[in-house]
Input
Amino acid sequence: MGKYKTLIYDCDGVMFDSLEANLSFYDRIMEMLGRPALERANSEQMRVLHTYSNWDVLAWFFPDPKEYLAAVDSAARIDYRDLVPLMRLEEGFIDTLEVLVPHVGLAVCTNRSTSMDMVLESFGLTRYFGCVMTAAKVARPKPFPDPLVKVLDFYRIRPEEALFIGDSDVDRQSASAAGVPFVAYKTDLPAMARICRHSEILGLI
Output
């Protein structure tokens, strides 16, 4: 270990299988506003709700300004703690963090807004991450480079000294814009490397 000084993890789809929690969150909003439930078989709906920031997802589903504001209000009334039991920690993730933490900085870069700290605490992960960058902490979340640049600034490192592990094209675009090497997790997106298990990251650093 030595080439890379910091590993940056996306949350949904990388640290956690959180599709059920996210789907339930937006289904609750749809119900509050009298809309039909989302279609699990609709791959575009599933992609959007799983990768973009909360505000961008709501804007996608509710392009009308008045409906968008109503959706934002509905979202604010949902307690995400009720949905945490639907999240599943990815296999081998904590074991890999235990190996990494004495050697490299660890960070989270997610398009979640306000729920990330609570999720980390619920799963006992807070102590592993020195920097947690969310959509609420930047003017332009992923796919823009801003959140990754903030992580680099926090650790005072150059882009080539970090790796960003993600699972979506939003992650890939953000990494490319920030100049950070991208590692694709359980996906065949263009990347410096592709891994299917968290332990495989140990062979890259």
Summary: The CA atoms of residues 101 and 128 lie 7 Å apart. The mean pLDDT is 95. Helices lie at 19-32, 43-51, 54-61, 65-76, 93-100, 116-122, 146-155, 169-178. The beta strands are 6-9, 16-17, 88-89, 105-109, 131-133, 162-166, 182-185, 193-195.
